[in-house]
């Protein structure tokens, strides 16, 4: 049963795979210090519920009408890539002349909000005809924030699809393939419901000024050729000062073009009767059983018909583990921070780098308790998509991969019945 010791050895704890320890300002780490299970810390409240006279705060007897938001937006992405360092910016829009040979952020051309590219809906508001101008403008700003972040996600994926370049070979091709992988990972992370809310809130609160959205490092190996050491996305959503919106006479609505609205929420939790962590090593494989497995999650039915899934708590005990002269007593695994994704059918897929698990235990060496008997811990992130099965009655981790100390680990649990909390 040497599986847990490979994670908890003192040398491995020192090199925890948690990106949020190295880059706490990344938008993906906005909730990293929040206790999992605290339902108020997922970062999903960007203020839309407080806009009286606009959806979703319209009186049942009132009718919402479409407002077209006017102004312009801008944005660019700057990467720091191993080993060449800071790269020229990639702009959301280069303008009619295209990308120059040696671009700078000054070459990024603002986009008219009524003509956004890549099929991203133009920002709008859904408010009553009697809504105050400030109220409509506030919702325009929020919807524009979501539009900006959605467009950024699309553009990041577009840049990834363009790599590697057709004429690239050898090490250059290898580096571009790694950049491609990191870009896809960042787009997937930014597209998660909670992270998208954080991004949109950041743009909205900037009130028309360019604002940095820190994406941090890519999911590929640190220091490897083509690894993205750091990525900074800059976004701007600026409403027209003289005419920020126009009422679309007689066009009724129930939602805005870009803000995800919640129609219903359920908090559920339960117990899984069994689970395991399987270790895949260079010479042999092994597994350790899990017990006392509990979980809690929230499902939000969105107005567009999708379902957002927020895992708020996961706890499990593991068997004591021995490995050579080391032992780990009373190992425990818990979700380090809430994580969200979209439920598709009966499956939830958490992208690589989004699921953070803390592993802790008391470490013993040659019969001597280390660290004064205090529990040692490390936080680890999934290195591939973590798949959850969400059936009509239950919840189970099907395949959640992690890496530590040169080993690959997979967490899975049997289906546990989930009840409304």
Describe what you observe in this structure.
The chain has 421 residues and is an alpha+beta fold. The chain has helices at residues 3-8, 10-14, 19-22, 133-161, 170-190, 193-205, and strands spanning 64-69, 71-81, 85-86, 90-91, 111-112, 124-127, 211-216, 228-239, 245-253, 262-272, 275-280, 285-302, 307-318, 321-323, 326-335, 339-344, 347-350, 356-365, 368-369, 376-381, 386-390, 394-404, 407-413, 416-420. The two termini are 35 Å apart.
Distance from first to last alpha carbon: 35 Å
Runs in which pLDDT lies below 50 for 5 or more consecutive residues are 1-15, 35-49
Cα-based radius of gyration, to the nearest Å: 24 Å
Largest sheet: 15 strands, antiparallel
Strand content: 35-45%
Helix and strand layout, with pairings?
Elements lengths: L2 H6 L1 H5 L4 H4 L41 E6 L1 E11 L3 E2 L3 E2 L19 E2 L11 E4 L5 H29 L8 H21 L2 H13 L5 E6 L11 E12 L5 E9 L8 E11 L2 E6 L4 E18 L4 E12 L2 E3 L2 E10 L3 E6 L2 E4 L5 E10 L2 E2 L6 E6 L4 E5 L3 E11 L2 E7 L2 E5 L1
Antiparallel strand pairs: 1-6, 1-9, 2-3, 2-4, 2-5, 2-8, 7-8, 10-12, 10-24, 11-12, 11-23, 12-13, 13-15, 13-16, 14-15, 15-18, 16-17, 17-21, 18-19, 18-20, 21-22, 22-23, 22-24
């Amino acid at each position: 049963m040497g599986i847990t010791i490979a994670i908890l050895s003192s040398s491995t704890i020192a090199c925890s795979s948690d990106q949020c320890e190295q880059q706490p300002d990344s938008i993906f780490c906005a909730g990293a210090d929040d206790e999992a299970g605290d339902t108020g810390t997922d970062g999903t409240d960007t203020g839309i519920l407080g806009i009286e006279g606009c959806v979703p705060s319209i009186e049942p007897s009132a009718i919402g009408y479409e407002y077209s938001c006017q102004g312009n937006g801008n944005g660019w992405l700057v990467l720091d890539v191993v080993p060449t360092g800071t790269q020229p910016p990639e702009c959301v829009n280069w303008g009619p002349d295209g990308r120059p040979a040696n671009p700078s952020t000054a070459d990024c051309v603002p986009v008219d909000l009524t003509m956004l590219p890549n099929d991203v809906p133009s920002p709008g508001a859904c408010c009553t005809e009697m809504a105050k101008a400030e109220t409509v403008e506030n919702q325009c700003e929020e919807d524009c924030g979501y539009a900006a972040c959605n467009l950024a996600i699309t553009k990041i994926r577009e840049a990834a699809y363009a790599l590697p370049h057709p004429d690239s070979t050898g090490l250059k091709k290898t580096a571009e393939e790694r950049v491609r992988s990191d870009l896809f990972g960042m787009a997937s992370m930014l597209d998660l419901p909670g992270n998208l809310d954080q991004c949109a809130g950041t743009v909205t609160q900037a009130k028309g000024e360019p604002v940095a959205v820190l994406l941090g490092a890519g999911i590929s190996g640190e220091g490897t050729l083509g690894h993205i050491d750091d990525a900074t996305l800059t976004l701007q959503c600026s409403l027209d000062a003289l005419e920020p919106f126009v009422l679309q006479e007689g066009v009724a609505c129930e939602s805005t073009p870009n803000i995800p609205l919640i129609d219903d929420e359920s908090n559920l939790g339960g117990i899984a009767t069994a689970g395991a962590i399987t270790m895949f090593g260079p010479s042999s494989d092994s597994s350790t059983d899990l017990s006392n497995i509990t979980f809690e999650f929230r499902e939000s039915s969105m107005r567009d018909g999708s379902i957002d899934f927020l895992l708020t708590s996961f706890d499990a005990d593991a068997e004591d583990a021995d490995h050579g002269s080391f032992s780990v007593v009373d190992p425990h695994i818990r979700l380090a921070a809430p994580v969200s994704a979209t439920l598709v059918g009966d499956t939830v897929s958490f992208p690589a780098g989004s699921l953070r698990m803390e592993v802790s235990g008391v470490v013993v060496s040659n019969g001597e308790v280390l660290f004064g008997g205090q529990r040692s811990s490390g936080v680890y992130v999934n290195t591939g998509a973590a798949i959850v099965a969400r059936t009509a009655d239950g919840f189970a981790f099907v395949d959640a991969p992690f890496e530590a100390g040169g080993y690959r680990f997979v967490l899975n649990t049997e289906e546990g019945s989930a009840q409304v909390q």
